[in-house]
Every structure is written in structure tokens, then in C-alpha cells.
Known about the structure:
By secondary structure, chain A is mainly β. In chain A, 11% of the residues lie in helices and 41% in strands.
Amino acid sequence: MVFRLARTQIVLIFFVTLHFSCVRGIQPVIRESAPTLVVEGMISTDSAPYNVKLTFTGQLLNASAHIDSNQNYINDASVLIRDDQGDSCPFQLVSPGLYQSTNSNFLGAVGRTYVLEIHLANGETYKSSPEQIPPVPPIDSFSVVYDSTYITDVRPTQIIVSANVHDPEKTTNFYRWTSFGYVPRKSWGGPCTIGSPPCTDPYMCTCFALCVQYHPDNALNILSDQFVNGREIIQPVYYSPVYWFGRHFVEVKQMSLNRDLYIFWQQYLEQTARTGSILDPLPASLTGNIRNVADSNDVALGYFQVSAVTTRKIIIVPYFLQEYLLASVAGSYIPPGDCHAEIPNSLGDDQDPPGWEDAEIIQMH
Amino acid sequence: MRLITVRKFLVFCFCALFQQSFSQQVELKGQINDFDTHEPVAGATISFRNHNRGTSTDDSGRFSIAMPVDTYELVCTSGGYQIYTRTIYLQDEHFVTVQLKKRPPAELPEIVIASRRTDANVSEARMGTISINVAQLRKTPMVFGEADIIKAIALQSGVSTAGEGSNGFNVRGGNVDQNLILLDNAPLFNSAHLLGFYSVISADAIQNFTLFKGTIPASFGGRLSSLAAISIKPGNEEKVRYNTGLGPISAHVFADGPMGNKFTFTAGARIAFPRAMMSFFPGSVGNSNAFFYDLTGKLTYKINNKNRVSLSLYRSYDFFKFPGDTTYSWQTDLASVNWRSEISKKLVFSLNSNASYYISDINGVQPNYQFRLRNTILHRQGKGNFSYQASDKNYVEMGADFINYIVSPGQLSPAGPGSIINHINLQNENGNEFAEYLLDRFDIGTLLSVEAGIRHSTFQYRGAHTIYSYAPGVPESQATIVDSVLYGKGEPIQTYQGWEPRALLKIGIDEATSIKLSYDRTYQYLQLISNTISITPVDYWKLSDPQVKPAAGTQYALGIFRNFGNNLIESSVEGFYKRSSNTIDYKNGANLSMNPYLDASLLEANGKSYGLELNLKKTKGKYTGQLAYTWSRTFIQDISSFASEAVDGGAYYPSNFDRPVNLNLSGGVKLGSGWDFGVNFIYVSGRPATYPDGTYVINNTVVTNYSLRNEDRLPVYDRLDISFSHDSRRFPEQKKYTVVNFSIYNVYARKNPYSVYFQRDQSGLNSYELSVLGTVIPSFTIYYFF
């Protein structure tokens, strides 16, 4: 529950309601500061390798084209993670700014404490505070619900996947979920054989007309059990768009967070949801748990996350779907041509995504 | 050194208290009442034609002045009343009773704001005081057709707001919560409807509104910046009268009159219907909902000529709903009983008991997580006050004040059978505040006037409550708790106390010129915690406790006052310097909602403000006008042993209310036949803002970084408003009449920036300017009196 986010909405909506307000673009106000270290690192109970990304903050206007264009990657740092038993694992640079653990046997374990160390080329050393991996309860089951609402030209109807989790009563728990899936897509289709005439009707051709598309959920999804301690949590974790008939492949990772990191992500949500209302939370830097060893007031942006992870995969079979529904709602999402060729990040209809062989199947009638 | 100074001050006060006049003069005393309501008229000016002597009435409408034996033409004036003159043959002690009649419309001053008396800015020791002629508000430029007292005082020097549609007001750089707003002596914790577009009390229900933006009288305390005293209009004693008004978003009805011989009543209701306007808009806006109402009542019982009891009741309710999302509602219930007794002609006793209850509810409707979160404040107060007119040059007031606070910081409960939300009640905060005070207004000779006061307040934070101790040497957080102590119900936990001296000195240069100095110190034991610029209904109030010390404020002011043309033109220049300490700030990322360890998320802050205020106004004649210009600065400094916790590393930074230049020009013209023309022009420096100064990627999202708070500033705000109004009265006693007002707000459709914000899309970082009322807003309002 993010009360403050909702509060900023009401004021803005009220202004809009009155219809006397206006928003207009203005020339960006330029103010630059010295580059600051940005860290995005993690160790978990999941399998290695683990990643640590290092950048410096960039100038405001350099981000005009693409996310990557603004990243001042740090490629000459020395990175390692130490644990509370004296072991350590060095990281190596694998791509610009991205460091990966080099020891596949160095795995995160629940109850153990880890410290991230970063030695920059200029001699400065940054260390995270010691972070202990808290336990994570299992995902007991999933609930799936068909959401028949849609937003024209934005998304079709969808299946909402919720994780059912029994929150342990005796401990304070903070959760983060990440998820992705493969969803069925349809195109007009292509010629079944070389030289056959091209398809001229979206629904008449059957060859090369189906595929599955990779569909990640990039939204940050966190929860504290502060208000639901000991209860059966039913948390929406994935929204699978319904473009066409077929199976939906969904993977959900449920991670534990410690308190400070939960607060960090909560602040991230507030700061990235600013709407210009005077009731916005005041702007603030997203400082995390990593500081300069020589100057504790020099705090890096970003975080070092330690998490226990539990992973579940499911296959959803929506038997209830009717063609007239899809044709009227999802029809605009059916492109001409070969499905696999036209739909980005897709697999052909003869391919199931790998890794779902033992997944639980949920039938929707 | 400080002790010696305080002693000298106290000796000075008591010497003045018992000073006697040894001149060979006789005493003229009197009582000034309202002709219609028979209520005493406070602050009326008593002067004598062709003589340079004068005085004013106290809160009981009484005055006393020593004059040589002679024949005089007594002149009695007060804002909104006809001038009263009477010849007096003064040979020995004499007592006069005057019934002042309301002025007919043609004589009503066009200036909305007027000092209490035409020469008060020169003759009184008090400075930094603003009174409002509420009736005149109906004839001035309005927005959304509502006469609004908060918007009116925001046109005065030293008073500002965070922006259009923001709640509350800022006085000389102080936070919104540093204003004590009293409605018939009971405090209001929320001063606005619809998140700031309307004042919480209808102007039609108000008899007097006075803002003390400088030194608050010693009989009041509890806030650092200002006292806004609002009194509900008492019922008239002649016959029941009605008044209705209809505007584009709201309507009101008001009635007052006698109930038998002993009782009079006042009853009013106001309701807003923005939902009707919203329904015209498509999509989610059309499905939103907003609503408010307020009810005001007052019952007065005249026991006899010397004793009177009144009961004031008030309720306000606000509701806002965004479709499919959270709903918000907040409510104020207030009751105040006041007994006033004239023990003798010189001595008046008044006793007040009041209760104010504020409720804020948030209702979440997200499936499985439906909840209701409630915060409340219960404020109960008793106050006894003696006022003694020792002589024509010496007025004394003393009394005591007791307040009991119960603050409920959070009651969370599930709101629906499928909700998995737990019942959670955070511990209530309990506190008692006791204060005693003494103030004395006296003249020394003909040129010096003094108001000296001393107040001593004691606050005790009491159980039941758990107090946490934190490990030394590391930032306080839930993780660094090393011990906790559970205090039982009513058990004292922490006591604070302090002296709050108040002093004003007027040095008369001549009858039209004076220099004034003031000093005051105040403590505040209840503060607002907010991480936004504007106060909102769902912010949290916090009592002082072992971790949160009482806020303290000190203010010095110096002013030069001069009137021209027999008080036709008033002018003043005031400078002030304020310091505050122990105000509340919060750490970055602090969770303010339902946080049982909230103390660990808060920081102490120091503040300083200084400025210069220039006022020039003409209050009489066909053409009237006012110029109010303020230049001021205000800064904040977080106090923490850990610089990384403090904003800008613990350096002073501009506060959210630091708007250096504030110019307000208003004017009026009598057009004849009941028509008036009014105009306002406002020019204010932009509010401080925090612009991004870096960017980075995290969680596959580009994030803008803000490393220094309030280092930037929004563009200037300026606006012109005009109004035409018509009053159908042809004589002052006319009972049935209408007042119509046609206003144009923001005549040249200036898109004044409310905020600048930044969003990033595929094209890069974009800057946007949000204007709340960025167009011409006409409104038409009609008032009908019968």
C-alpha cells in the first residue's frame, strides 16, 4: 500500500477535473553535478553467476536517445563479494559496466551475511553495509483471473496471475516479485509452401500464423507484511495479455528483501511516480546501502540486494476463450505475414519455450 | 546577563502595572456596542475633535481615558460602522454608552482588509495585525464565486501560500502548521475544503477575523508563526433574518435571530457540488467524485446585563474519490462554550471550554487489500481569563489555559470480507499542556505605549506508550533499537516547560508617526509531519515526546508607521527577524504512515527568516487602494550527527516557502448607484524547487537524480483580477436586499507555474510546467438577504 502515491493522484485529478489547469512543455532546466557512483548489485540463493552493474550518473541531456546512451559505464573497477565466513568471490567485467561472479560455487545462503566491495580506479573504495539474506516462504499456489477490460491500442484483455503465499507470522517479511512469460500470438500467416499465394485474410491461413512471444513484466512489485502479517497473501504478480488462443507460460520469482532495501524500493516508486503535483513527495536521491569507506557521507546511488529466491513456473490454458471475443478485441494485434518473423522476441508455433517441462498446468474454464 | 535582563523586564512590567496617573484630570469611561446585535465592539477608536488625545475599546467594548475638565466633541469610529459624534461636558467622572450603527453600503470601505482602527497602525503598540471586513469580501474579486478569508489574507504583506489550490497559508516564512487558527477559541487543524480551493469556514458565518502575524498576545500560545482568531457571528436580537448565496460550485444558507427574550441563534450551512461539473468530463474524471459541506451554529444566552453564555458548534466534512482507487475523507467537529461575566465595570471574567476533533480517513479498495486507515486528533481545552481596566492608560489581562491532547497516529482495519489486512492500532499519543499568562498594556506619558506579556507553558507527554532507546553512534532506526520502556496509562514520560515573553513598544514621534518594536518567544508542542510542500488532509500530527522536542520560535520586529491626511493614507515599513529550532523534518525514505518507530525517521531542524514589509493604503473616499510589498527570505537547516541523513549535508537551504518578493496591489472605485469596481494585482517570486542534476539507470528504468534541495526556483507568479459588484440597499436598515458579484480571475490568462516537473520518455528528458488555474476564470455569485 503506497498511500502517498495515491494522494498525489487525487490532487492532480482534481485540477484536471476543474479543467482550468494546463501542462505545457518548457525548455529543460540544466543543472549538472559531479558524477556519482551508481550500483546495482545482487546476490541470492538462486544459481550463479550474480551481476553487479557499475555506472556514474550522467548528464541530463545525454539521455535523449536511448537508455544505454547515457550510461557512463565503469569498466576498470575491482568488484568482489565477501561473506561472513571469510570467503569471497571476485567479479569480472563481462560487458560494459557489468561485472559477473566468477566462482559458480559461491552461492548465497539464507542467514548468511554478505558485503559488496567496489574498488574504483581512482583509489576510492565503496562498501555495502553487511546484509543478511532473510528467508523467503514458498509460493503455495497461483490464482488466475480473466480481466475482460482492455485499453484500445495499448493492451488487450489479460489474465491476472496472483501468487498465494502464507506469510510467516513470527517474522517480519518483505517481498519482491519478478516475472516473465511467453504469450500466444497470431498473425495472418505465411504461404505454406514456397510459391503459394500470400495470405489475404487474417483468419483463413493456418501456416506460420501462430507463435509465442516473450513478455517480461518490468514493473517493480514489492510488499511488506506490516499490515498483513501472518495472513494468506494473494499478490498479483503477472499480467499476461490475451492476444489469441493458446497456452501462457509464466515464471515467477519470489524474493525476500531486508527492511532497508524494501524502503529503498518504496522510495524508488515514489520518486519515479512524480506527477508535478505540489503534493508530490519532495525530490530526493535514491541512496542505498553502499558508502565510501573513507567518507561515510559519500553514499552511492543504487543498492546491493541480498535475497532468498523461490521460483515457480506454470502453464495457463484458457479454455473459456471465444473467438468472437478475440476477433473484436485483439484483432488489431494480428499483423500480416509470418508470426515468428513479424512478432519480435517470439518462438515459432512448433516450439514451446524451454524450461516449462515440469510446470504446473492451470486450466481456465 | 540574560537573567538580569529578564529581571529588569519583570520589574518593568510590574511597575507599569501599578503605575498611577497623578495629573489633575477626570476620567471618562464608556461602553461601545453594536446597535443591531448589542455585542461589544472591540477596537473602536475614541477620539476628541480638535484634540490630540484618544484611546480604543478593549475586547469587552470598554474604554477609559483621563481628560482635563472641558467640553469635548467625542468621536467614535470603528471599521464597518457609521461615525458617531456626541458633545460631552466633562466635569467629573463620566460614563457614556454608545450604540454604533453599521454603515450603509455607500460608506462601506472598498478595501477588503483594514486595520482594526483607522489610526491603529500609529496609535497602538501592537503591530503586525490584520483584520478583515468580512461583509466587504462579497464585493471583491473572487475565484469560483466564493468570498474567502484565507485568499484575502494572502494578499497581505508577510502572508503567502504555496500556490493555487494549496491548503493553508504561510506567515513570515513559517510552516503551515505554525498558524494557530481558532474558531470561537477552539482550534482548527485543517483550514481548507477541496484540498485548498475553499476556506473551511464560510465567510458569511464570520463576525471577525484577525490575524496576528507578529507578536501573538501572551494569552495565546502553542504555535510559532501566527494566530488567526475567527469569531462566529452572533444572532441579532430583533428578528430572524436569512441570507443565501449561490455560486458555480457551492451554495449556502444562513439564518440568525432571537429565540425568546434571552436567546439568540446563528445557523448556517454550506454545501459544494463539484460532482456536477465533473460529470461533464469524459473518462475517469467523469467518474470521480468530490463533495464537502460545513455547518456552523451559535447559541447565545443572555443571563443578565453582566453575564452571557454562548455555545458554538461547527462541523466540516470533505470527501474525494478517484474511480477504482482510494477514497479520502476528513472531518472536523468542534464545540466551544464561552461564559463572559462583568464582575465590575473594570473587571471582566471569561471562561472557555472547547473540544476539537479531527478525523482523517483513507479507504483503499484494491482487491484483497481493502482497508480503512484513520488518524485522529482530539484537543480539549479549558481557559479562564481576567481582564482588568486599571486606568485609562493601563489594561491588564491574566489567566490560565489547560489543554489535553490525544493523537491517534493510525488505526488500520480491513474494509471488506475478503480483505487480508490486519487490525492494527498504533499507540495513542497523550499530552497535557498547561499555561499561565499575564499581559499589560499601558502608556507612559503621551508618546510611549507598551504591551508586555509573559507566558509560561508546561507540556507533559504521558502514557500509555512505549518509548524506544536507540544505540549511540549510529543513525536511529528500528534496527538500532536497544531498549524499550512501556509506560502505563497517565504515567508521565517527558516534561517540557519554558517562558514565553512577549513585548511591544510604541514610541510616538508625533500624532501621525510612531516607531514600534516587538519581541516574542513561543513554543509549539504539536507539529505536522509532511513530506510535501502543501498541507494535506492525510498528513500526520505529532506531539512532542522524548525524541521530538518542542519547537521554539523567537521573533524580533521593528517598524515605522505614519499616516497622512488625517488617517486618509496609512503607511508602514516593518522589518522582522525570526529564528526557530526543533521543527520537524524527516529523513529521506522515511515511512510516515503507520510507523510505530516514527521518531527514528525524524530530524530536528532550525529555521531563520528575515524580511521587510511595506504597506501603503488609502481606506476612504471614492478611490481606495492598498500596496503591500514584502521582501523576505527563509531558510532551513537539518540537525543530525550524520551528515548523510540531513538535507544538503546539514547546511542551510531555502525553505519551501522562500519567496523573496511579494507584491500585492488592490484598489476599488465607487461607481455610484450601489456599483463597485475592485481590482487586485499580485506579483510573487517563484517558489523554490528542486531540479534534477543527473541521470542514471536502475531496474531498467532511467532515473533522474536530485542532489540538492530547493537550489532552483519556479518562474514568477503574477495575476490580475477584477470585479464588479452591486448592492441593492438604499439605506442601512434595509432588510431585504441582494448583493451580486461578477468577477474575472486571472484577467490576462497568465499560465502561472504551480510546479515544474520532469518526465522521461523515448525522446529524452522533458520538462513540464503545471498551471493550476492557467486561464481566465469568470464567476457570478448572488447573495440574497431577507
